[in-house]
Amino acid sequence: MQAMPASVRFVRVHFKGLLALSPPSTSHTLYSTSSSMVAQTSSRWATMMATSTVRRLGVEARGVLVVRQLSASASCSTLSYTSLCATEPEQERVSNGWNKRNFLGSGQQFTCREDFASPFFYIQQQQRRSMSTTGAAKKGLVAVEEARRFMVDCLVQANTPLAHAKQQADLLVEADYRGHFSHGMNRLEMYINDLHKNACNGKAVPSVLNETPATAWIDGNNGLGAVVGNYCMDLAIRKAKEVGVGWVCAKRSNHYGIAGWYTLRAMNAGCIGMSMTNTSPLASPTRSKEAALGTNPISVGAPGKDGDGFVLDMATTAVAVGKIEMQRRKNEPIPVGWAQGPDGHPTTDASVAFETACLMPLGGTELTSGYKGYGLGAMVEVFCGVLAGANYATKIRKWTHAGADSEADLGQCFVAINPACFAPGFEGRLSDLTSILRNMPMTDPNHPVLVAGDPELHHMAMVDKEGGLAYHVNQIKTCTELSERLGVKPIEVI
Ligand SMILES: NC(=O)c1ccc[n+]([C@@H]2O[C@H](COP(=O)([O-])OP(=O)(O)OC[C@H]3O[C@@H](n4cnc5c(N)ncnc54)[C@H](O)[C@@H]3O)[C@@H](O)[C@H]2O)c1
């Protein structure tokens, strides 16, 4: 073995302490491993930070400091590993999410006691702040599989074939699992109402309108968003494998949930994925006090080495409307810059914001470059509504909890790119990029730098640790009402 600088030995000792607690079945040899093996045995962001620091130690004194900080935090936060039940089938506890499958690939689960000094504590705080949709104080814990069961039962009861109900439920559960509660169970009632009003057809299957080796134009036939989206992304992936890139656009689709679901699908197949959708008007163009564009999310996902990756999944408004909805459900205010009141000025009242339905674009006002978010939202329309020949901007009907009275005809865009057609070693470089970013000097040692997708990873680990999805009590109430209305077995709270 090569002689190591003292600082590297310092890191070895630190991690040896952690790995000593891992189950004997694991065969990780920390010091000679690549960052990936370490990543598989610990919370990804923490180990990535440390292992890439190992690589850079001796070059940058700053790296040593980062590891020392991490070590200090670790020592006061009782880091430990718990082995998951060896007989438990992975499928039962692991969602379809790309990150999660890789994250838990080692069969271990990371647990930690929350400690004020710990960076993990910070992440949890960050979750609460940035996602603002987590369970908060009042919550009902529901097992992931029970949430899925409940969703499938409700959708089937609303005249949706089982296979379609499962696709839709998988998507909604994944949203909750990743911490985007606004786009999980919270959306179920709206889908059910749409199905009952025939604004959406649960039985519809997409059809191809035009196709070339690299492109396809799809008619979603007013089917469920997940059914149309899965079909389109799978087609894009197939084309990417054949000719390097697949670009698929759909018209006549419906609300497709978290945009990241589809990019994760592409990443699962070793591709770079991109996905966008237009949505009902909810955001005002800069200088307007009326909504013309939707929250029009964009997701780009790229696979790194051994479970690392970049999963950007974001609304082009300051937040997704669901977050305002969740604040309203919780009777809590919203921060300045999320939404406008009826006078066109920012409001902090979640109910006023929800009723006005006029979100601010990413960036906020013109002074804070909100026009860039407005530009991104309009760009989504170019690739979705305009390119697919679907509805766009103010032509899209409004959508409320009561459901819609007419077809949405949303436009959506799904892209898969095969990195093997470009410079060799994409995944390694991607992981190097994320390591560089995660290792950047912190403004606060308790607030580590993250890359897109890290907060969701941490949320998934937290759900596993807690043993279920922490729904707000009002969400459970809505589920109970839904079960009574549809005559399905009520959701079981742990
Ligand atoms: N289907 C629809 O109509 C629709 C519309 C809008 C939004 N959505 C979905 O709603 C969800 C929430 O959207 P959002 O914009 O509110 O998400 P968000 O603001 O919580 O996160 C946006 C992105 O930033 C990343 N991120 C968060 N904190 C970070 C940090 N400190 N450092 C680095 N990266 C960080 C996240 O990983 C994520 O990729 C998304 O899944 C989106 O697709 C869907």
From TrEMBL:
> Which one Pfam family would you cite for this protein?
Ldh_2
Keywords from the UniProt entry: Oxidoreductase
Q: Name one GO molecular function term.
A: oxidoreductase activity
Q: Which InterPro entries match?
A: Mal/L-sulf/L-lact_DH-like_ah, Mal/L-sulf/L-lact_DH-like_NADP, Mal/L-sulfo/L-lacto_DH-like_sf, Malate/L-lactate_DH-like
The question of whether Oxidoreductase is a record keyword is answered with: yes
> What's this protein's family per the entry?
Belongs to the LDH2/MDH2 oxidoreductase family.
Protein name listed in UniProt: Malate dehydrogenase
Species whose genome carries this gene: Anopheles christyi
